[in-house]
Amino acid sequence: MQTLTLTQPDDWHLHLRDGAALQAVLPHTVRQFSRAIIMPNLKPPVRSVADAAAYRDRILAAIPAGKRFEPLMTLYLTDNTDPAEIIAAKASQFVKAVKYYPAGATTNSDFGVTDIRKCDRVFEAMQQVNMPLLLHGEVTDKAVDIFDREQVFIEKHLIPLKQRFPHLRIVLEHITTSDAVEFVLGNNNIAATITPQHLLFNRNILFKGGIRPHFYCLPILKHEAHRRAILQAATSGNAKFFLGTDSAPHGRNSKETSCGCAGCFSALHAMELYAEAFETVDAIDKLEAFASFYGPDFYQLPRNTEKITLTKTTWRIPDEVPFAESGLVPLRAGEEMTWQMA
Ligand code: NCD
Ligand code: ZN
User: Fold this and answer.
1) Which end of the chain, N or C, is less surrounded by CB atoms within 10 Å?
2) In this predicted model, what pLDDT tens digit does every residue of 241-262 receive, in sequence order?
3) pTM of whole model > 0.85?
């Protein structure tokens, strides 16, 4: 039987939610990953070190008995974030990054930044104390086509930001375009996370035989040429590209409705999905570094030492898994997978 033994991976972009939803999804992530960067877009968002400490305690309390998992916390940047909070975040040791959402860009982003220049004093502090900035890199301008929001963000906001703060360490999250790949390759102090859905699917899947809400996430899936570009980046062995699932659970009721939420749930089978994507280009040998080395290297944390095993075998992804108010439909629900994590 074909098996694959890898250093235990980490998830560098994860939504765990709170309360009953947190209880439901955390065991899936704990089964696959040793650590995760926890997104702060709760309602209300995690804006202070005190908020992050309390949320971290709730996560720790939800870890299944006998398991180990380290939540790496983030703060949600707003127009009003005080540079002093950055200093406090650095001192806390458990806050590892600050997340920028443009106001209105995605789920629970109402508190997001209205104009990125308003945060320059905060970026100055972050650059000074070596606190990474995580970017949801999309513009929200209604005149910009939804498929162009990443490119326009890079041109209008990221290039000027890099010029103002060349030493600020940045992660361009969940990249979806060749433009993002090129920007990351061409600049220092910037890396990118890549999700399984953006490696496996182009935008056609959103409309295959009808409208398919469980493939709707933000940034939205793109043209096949972009999918190929990010798959090439992920499998290139370049340390600037690493794993971040962006697993973003929403109950079935919130997805299968007239105005469905953005987000794909992949925590159940993330490593299997990445393995399949890498295998399509014969790059399974590049999976370990993408999943387990380059993330901790960027975050200046030690690599994990434990191992996981993936086995070549066929199994069916469940139609749904238990969640809070209604069931949770995993990415590619009901389909067969060819790798399985032990
Ligand atoms: C995320 C969510 O649901 O919190 N949704 C998504 O489509 N990725 C928010 C985000 O990261 O954009
Ligand atoms: Zn996200």
Assistant:
1) N
2) 999 999 999 999 999 999 999 9
3) yes
